[in-house]
Structures are given as structure tokens and as C-alpha cells.
Specification:
By secondary structure, the protein is mainly β. The protein folds into two domains: about 190 residues, no CATH class; about 120 residues, Immunoglobulin-like, CATH 2.60.40.1120. It is about 5% helix and about 40% strand. The chain contains two helices and 22 strands. Strands 2, 3, 7, 8, 10, 11 and 12 form a seven-stranded antiparallel β-sheet that branches. The longest helix has 5 residues. It is elongated, with a radius of gyration of 28 Å. The relative contact order is 0.13.
């Protein structure tokens, strides 16, 4: 099923938060509880020392991100979702990676022995700034002391770009890095198409399922309505149509589907067509209004003077298109 969530895009530049020998003290806010989380300050060099690679933790029990992961925000720390992971089995080459969850999109490019401070966001993608000289991004990069890396993160809730320089590293042991964040945003998915999977292949599109109902028709102003010359009564504006479960204003009724027609001109008998699809089957009501000035509000509700049509009953059937013309006949 689709996921619909409220859009949230936080780009504050506050304090840094990391894991290892890091100097900041994380706050407790998160993007989801309405409190702004501490975010990294852009273009500022910080440092952290990891104690060991994640997969070379030693001792019993399961491995932990403690001592092996960098968290650039309190949001990432609270969700135990590192922005960078120092990894590698004991006795093997250590690596850097940023994709720690199943649906994470995160890549790393090894820029070679270049100073961290001089790397710009543009150079993170094309170090030489020459057409065709784009950097090569991979999922996991081997650790090389003295090298600088560009890390690109595009997760479901975090979008980031930062650069990392490996200052020192002991095999199977500590590693010290310097880093500078170039972009960092916490965001929420507005809508996501279903069906993603790392092993998913492609084929012909499946025929659309005939599960939703549709209503279509036209909307016009009644002949007896006088369209004036002022913006408040000239029969021009925003048309709002909504399918509701009962003949009552929102939020007393439940909105099942809606459509907004901007800049509608209904003077002189003009009409505008509409279609509302993806509706559930059942007996409902179709309501409409013309907002000549301003906006319909939230939830949509007519203001004094707006043209309206009384909610009209309508029967919707799955896979069937119902036709219903709407006439706006009264001013609210």
C-alpha cells in the first residue's frame, strides 16, 4: 500500500552528534515529536576516533555500533542509524560504509590524497571539475590512511553529503577521522511506490486493478446566480469538490476524495469538467464550492459569500465511473 505522510524537511544547523570519542552532547528532540533535533553545522571540520571495526568487536554477544559508528544528528542516534560505519572482520581490510539498513541508498567515493578542507560539494562529485571526470561511487570503500572520501546518503528519512579524511588507523583497532558535513536534511516520505526489493526484476506493467470507483462530470454556476464585477462575487476562483461520507461539514464528515480546480472561470454559463478517482465503493455525498477570494481553509469550509452546492447523494461502485454534474446555486 502507499504510504502517505506529512512532509517534513529540517535544515537547521545546530550541534554535532557522533559515536566514539566525540565532543558533543546530543539533545533529545526528534523530527517526529515536534522538537527540532540537533543537526550538524555545515562546512565545519570535526573529528572522531573509533575504537574498533564493527565486525571485529571481540568478546561475546552481538556487535554494537558503540565505538564503530558516526552519528551526525541526534535523530540518527535515537534511531540507531549511523551516518558512517567503520567495519571489517578481524584480520581483513577495514572498510567505510553508510548503508546500514535494508532500504538505504548510500554510496562512497575515494577521492585519494586530497586535503579535506578544500573539498567543495561540487568536488565531492567531480574532483577535477572536468566534464567526464566524475568520481566513482561504491557501496563500501576500503580504508586508506591519508585518503579523503565523499559520502552521499539518500535514505528514507535522511539526505546528506559529507567528506571524511582518514587521519590514522591501526589494523583491527582504532581509527581517527576528520570530517565536514556539506548538506544534511531530515525529511519524511510523502509518497512511496510499493514493490521495492534489492532482488526485484523488471517486466511488463501489470494491468491496473479495478478496485476504485470514479466520479466525473462538470461544475457550473446556476443561471439565476448573478456574477458581479468585484473579485468577491465575479464567479471566478478556486473550485473545490469533495466526496464525503455524510452531508455534514468537515471535520464532522470524513473526506474520501477531493479535487481542486484553480483559476476556474464560471461566468456566462461556462463549466469546468472534473474527475475524482480512487474512491471506495459505497453510498456517499458530493459537495462543491467556489472560493472567489482567499482559500477554502483547512479543513475546507466555505466563507461568507462563497458559492456552494448542497451535498448530493451519490452511489459509487468499484471499477465503475459515475457521472454527476454539479450546479453552484447559493452563496454561503
Amino acid at each position: 500500500m502507499r504510504r502517505l505522510t506529512t512532509s517534513l524537511f529540517l535544515t537547521l544547523t545546530l550541534s554535532l552528534a557522533g559515536c566514539g570519542s566525540h565532543g558533543s552532547d546530543p539533545a533529545t528532540g526528534s523530527a517526529h515529536d515536534g522538537i527540532a533535533p540537533a543537526l550538524p553545522e555545515l562546512n565545519t571540520v570535526g573529528s572522531v576516533t573509533f575504537t574498533h571495526p564493527y565486525s571485529c568487536y571481540g568478546g561475546g554477544g552481538a556487535p554494537s555500533y558503540e565505538g564503530s559508528a558516526l552519528f551526525l544528528s541526534d535523530y540518527a542516534r535515537q534511531r540507531n542509524a549511523p551516518d558512517l560505519l567503520y567495519d571489517g572482520a578481524c584480520g581483513s581490510t577495514a572498510t567505510l560504509s553508510a548503508a546500514t539498513a535494508g532500504d538505504d541508498f548510500a554510496l562512497i567515493a575515494d577521492l585519494g590524497e586530497v586535503p579535506l578542507a578544500g573539498v567543495t560539494p561540487a568536488m565531492a562529485f567531480n574532483l577535477t571539475q572536468v566534464v567526464g571526470g566524475d568520481n566513482t561511487f561504491i557501496r563500501t570503500a576500503p580504508v586508506s590512511v591519508g585518503h579523503t572520501y565523499a559520502v552521499l546518503i539518500s535514505k528514507s528519512d535522511i539526505r546528506a553529503l559529507f567528506v571524511v579524511h582518514v587521519d590514522a588507523q591501526v589494523a583491527d583497532g582504532p581509527m581517527t577521522i576528520s570530517y565536514a558535513v556539506k548538506s544534511y536534511a531530515i525529511q519524511e516520505t510523502v509518497e512511496s511506490a510499493p514493490g521495492f526489493g534489492w532482488g526485484a526484476t523488471s517486466g511488463a506493467a501489470a494491468p491496473p486493478a479495478k478496485t476504485g470507483a470514479t466520479v466525473t462530470g462538470s461544475v457550473r454556476v446556476a443561471a439565476e446566480v448573478v456574477c458581479g464585477s468585484s473579485a468577491a462575487n465575479d464567479c471566478r476562483g478556486l473550485v473545490y469538490l469533495g466526496v464525503i461520507d455524510r452531508p455534514a461539514p468537515l471535520p464532522e464528515s470524513k473526506l474520501l476524495g477531493s479535487l481542486v480546480i484553480p483559476a476556474a472561470d464560471l461566468r456566462g454559463g461556462r463549466a469546468r469538467s472534473y474527475t475524482i478517482a480512487g474512491l471506495p465503493a459505497g453510498s456517499y455525498y458530493l459537495a462543491a464550492m467556489l472560493v472567489e477570494t482567499g482559500a477554502p481553509g483547512n479543513p475546507p469550509f466555505p466563507k461568507p459569500g462563497d458559492l456552494t452546492a448542497a451535498p448530493a447523494p451519490i452511489l459509487l461502485q468499484a471499477g465503475v465511473t459515475a457521472h454527476r454534474d454539479v450546479t453552484l446555486s447559493a452563496r454561503f
